[in-house]
Each structure stands twice: as structure tokens, then as C-alpha cells.
Amino acid sequence: MNSHSSIHLSMAVDHFHDYFNKTCNVGVSSLKIAEYLDIPMTERSGGVGTYIRSLSAEFMRQGHEVAIVDGLNKPRLFSNRHLINVSRNSDIHHFHEPSTALLAYCIETVFSKPSNIVITFHAPVLNKVLRTFYSIIPPSLYRKADLIMTTTKRNAGYLKSGGIQARVIPLWAEEYFCPTHSNRYVRKPYVLSVCAVDSYHSYKNYYMISKLGKALGRRFKMDLVHVGVHDFVLPYVIHYGVVNNQRLRELYQNATAFVLPSIGPYEGFGIVAAEALSCATPALVSNGCGISEFLSDVFVSSLPGFQDRLCDMIADLVKNPRPIIDQAYQESLKFSYENCKTTVSMMLSCNKDHERHGV
Hints:
Helices cover about 45% and strands about 15% of the residues. It is α/β, with parallel strands linked by helices. The protein folds into two domains: about 190 residues, Rossmann fold, CATH 3.40.50; about 160 residues, 3-Layer(aba) Sandwich (Rossmann fold). The strands form two sheets. Strands 2-1-3-4-5-6 form a six-stranded parallel β-sheet, with helices on both faces. A six-stranded parallel β-sheet has the order 9-8-7-10-11-12, with helices on both faces. Strand 1, helix 2 and strand 2 form a beta-alpha-beta unit. Helix 1 packs across helix 2. The N terminus is likely disordered.
């Protein structure tokens, strides 16, 4: 493993251990859970990053050990000592995306011991490139898993068409983003856009974001603020760049509304919309986002009508903000931390199933 990934891995694991040893008095762990992912773990690595950090934290809160093996898309797979040690000693193996699940064959073959295998589909399989890639992986690999999970119904439908059953678990907003201000109906005159991944992605539809900024300025004298990594400047948009979580929470809580006009089917879930809703901030997302499957129609729009829908939402918020803000809060309950606890419970049950069957 190269030094860059080693630093990310060490920082992530040390952070989890330090925090939970101090706050939860975690004792000796009873199970060892391995998390395998194809991207490097960074502070803001989108929905996948939130998923892994939250699951790892919840496992550790319950007294289990967690080891993270990240960046498996690098050509160093079989020279990674950490990977070998983790694979040899773990009780539950959790693979993020089928590309990493190819390791499942090696784990049972090389170490000759039963494994509890969990696979999670994050990436949108309706994306033509990903659908083609997933289709060439032998179905026997998926059937080898004790549990398959996915964050969207469309992914579950794709898997079902191949005879594979998957549990749908919508992503969740970390509890940190819950509101702290006393009056959630008082908002500042700006609309927020957030990109939580570490590089430019065209499917975020930056052209639309700029177009929305122009419309908001002309009709409502309202700014559109964009937060996240970028190497470009959008006209009609105020760029804040990368901010820490405290500042991001403030921006979520004080925004009049939040927008995620991503081009489908490339947006996996859209965790930033769940974070905004957890702050009772009305969010408008495109119907190509995974999160749109779980939202009421008032918070979802097709791209051709996105600008008009947003302007109608802003007009309603200016006139009487309480109804739609209350509705946004109710929507946020679908993406609460309870989803994380449910996911952890399902993964732990894999180990119990093995024990019951004497495996």
C-alpha cells in the first residue's frame, strides 16, 4: 500500500478508535469487521464516505473492531500486507461495489476458512458503463454473499432481473447535521448547492446550477452558493470552496432551499440532499438522483422543469415558509441514523446465521 493511502487508512481508523474509546468506553471487541472499498477514504468522500464512516463508528460503539482497506482500484492489490492481514483475521467482510467483491474468492480459497460476506451496491447500475461492468462479473459471486445491500430501488430491480435478491437501505445523514438553531423558520436569502466528492464530476450538472443562479438573482435577488472542490468558476454562483463540517452545517441550516440537479442515471444517491433535509431545509432534486425514489413529489423535479419548480418553491417559502419546512423535516426522518443501526444489525446477523448452521 502506498504512503498516501496508508495515511488515509491510519487516520480514519485512529479517529474512530480515539473518539469511541473516549466517549463510549468501548471494551474488548467481539467481532472483527473488514471494510473494502475502491476509493481512498477522505474527509468528504460523498455518500460512500458517510456510509463507511457511520457503519464503522456504529460497529465500534457496539464493541467490535473495524479495519478499513481503501483504494483497491490501484494496481497494488496483491502486494498489500494490510489487506492480507485484514482478510485473514476478519469475521465479517464487507465489500463496497462488486469490483472489490472479487476478493471474496481469494479470501475463502487462500485462507481456507468460512467467511461472512456482505456486498453493497452504491454506484448506479443503470449507468451504461457500470451496468456493462457488473454484468460480466459471474452471478455466482453475488450468490456467494450472505447479504447483498443497495442504496436504491433501481439497483435492487436490476439485481432482481438477474435472480439476485438485495435489501434496500436508503442512506442517512450523520447526526451531526441535525438542527441546532432555535428557529428553523428563519432563513437567509440564498440557495445552497453542495458537491461532497473530491473532484469535478460533470453529472452534477454545473450548467444547470449556473442557470439557477441567474434566475434566482433576477427574480428574487437571492444568491446561489456552491460548496465543494472545483477548478472552475460558474457565472451567477458564489463559490465557497471546501468548508469544514461546522460551517457546512451552518450553511445547510440557514439556506432558504437546497438544490441537487444531477443528471441521471449517474448520481448514486445524493447524500447531501439528506443532510440538507436533516436541517429541515427544503431540497429540490432531479428525478435521476437515487434519493428521489424516497422523496415526496414536492421535492423532486425532472430537469426540463427544474428551474420553474425551484422558483415556485422559493415563492412559496417567501410567502409562508412553515408548511414546506415542516414537510422537509418529516422527509428527513426517512434518512435518519436508524438506517445505519439497521444496516449494522443485518450485517451482524450474517455471523449469527453462520453460527446457527455450524459453519
